[in-house]
Amino acid sequence: MPKYKVVITARSFGESSDEPFNILKGNDCEVVKIPADRPLSAEELIPLVKDADALIVGNDKVTEDVINAGKKLKVISRYGVGYDNVDLNAAKKKGIVVTNTPNANNNSVADLVIGLMLVLARNLLAVDRIVKSGGWKRIMGTEIYGKTLGIIGLGKIGKGVAKRAKGFDMNVLCYDVYQDLKFAEEYGITYCSFEELLKQSDIVTIHVPLAPETKGLIGERELGMMKPTAFLINTSRGGIVDESALYNALANKKIAGAALDVMEQEPPINSPLLQLDNVVITSHIGGYTCEAITNMGIVAAKNVVLVLNK
Ligand code: NAD
């Protein structure tokens, strides 16, 4: 009988490769993968965690109650980067290690940002709809080549976007609480104030984590500073952009368009943003590629094994 029980609620864990499962099974772990079509609530997690030694979670709500219910729990392995869904203080109090999978999906998210920039600038979704409904009308787009890109949060994903943007000869501005001057010099990137970035950029892309300091970071005031021709892209977390302020800015053409991979509520049932033509919404697919799913699974499994074998 295996020594440890690992409960997995991360929906796409092992979807693209068996290797993550094999790592766990080869290290004395019984693996229980919970079938779910959305992140689980705390109430749903509590019965699952009771006799688990380890939990591998996606965006499921790992609250203090969940952590207290895990009597044998030693590690919460977050399958992904942001851990705003895990109560870190509660885990710390109980000596439970919380890990994540940085570097595993940053290329996938950075690729998506470039895709969304082109979708917005060339009206790709609207043109596709016209053609499929029998039309052949053209919508004039704008180039992204040589434009100014503002990156809020020059961490792993922000840097990936910056490197790709340099392939389009973009003028890259960034704002971050920490400055990596070596990277900025190597790639010709300029650090500036938050306000300067908003005022000067043709495209603003958000890559800060969701935290008390970043909740509502982009609201009415910030959207009001952006150019009327500018686009906003958020692939980071819902809640960083104030969605009602964004709705007003888009409906009143204060900015030209937005692309959101993340929303305050996912799925965004009844969000008025769904009614607008100048916003593109994807279903939190930033890290959902074959490569990222394999990488995240392997790292999340290895993190569990490292803690259990400590
Ligand atoms: P990272 O930690 O490497 O980078 C975050 C950067 O934000 C850091 O440079 C940090 O200094 C900066 N920062 C933090 N707080 C700030 C603040 N208040 N003001 C300005 N800068 C601040 O993280 P990463 O790997 O680049 O990921 C960024 C975020 O992307 C994650 O937190 C996660 O929420 C999100 N993400 C989304 C998807 C998706 O599927 N859409 C996938 C992966 C990650």
Ranges with pLDDT <50 over ≥5 residues?
A: none
Q: Strand share of the residues?
A: 15-25%
Shape category: elongated
Rounded average pLDDT: 97
- What's the architecture of the largest domain, going by CATH? 3-Layer(aba) Sandwich
Element string (H = helix, E = strand): EHEHEHEHEHHEHEHEHEHEHEEH
The name CATH uses for the topology of the largest domain is Rossmann fold
Extended strand count: 12
The biggest sheet amounts to: 7 strands, parallel
What's the CATH H-level superfamily name of the largest domain?
NAD(P)-binding Rossmann-like Domain
Count of helical regions: 12
Helix/sheet category? alpha/beta
Helix content: 25-40%
Distance between the termini: 20 Å
Can you describe what's shown?
The strands form two sheets. The chain has a seven-stranded parallel β-sheet with strand order 8-7-6-9-10-11-12, sandwiched between helices. The chain has a five-stranded parallel β-sheet with strand order 2-1-3-4-5. It has helices spanning 19-25, 42-49, 64-69, 88-93, 106-121, 124-132, 156-166, 181-187, 194-200, 220-225, 243-251, 290-308, and strands spanning 4-8, 29-33, 54-57, 75-78, 97-99, 148-152, 171-175, 190-191, 203-206, 231-234, 257-260, 279-281. Helix 3 (64-69) links the parallel strand 3 and strand 4. It is α/β, with parallel strands linked by helices and 310 residues long. The model has no long low-confidence stretch (mean pLDDT 97). The protein folds into two domains: 4-104 and 289-309, Rossmann fold, CATH 3.40.50; 143-281, NAD(P)-binding Rossmann-like Domain (Rossmann fold, 3-Layer(aba) Sandwich). It binds nicotinamide-adenine-dinucleotide. Nicotinamide-adenine-dinucleotide (NAD) binds at residues 80-82, 102, 105-106, 109, 153-158, 176-178, 207-210, 213-214, 235-237, 261-262, 284, 286-287. It comes from Thermoanaerobacter italicus (strain DSM 9252 / Ab9).
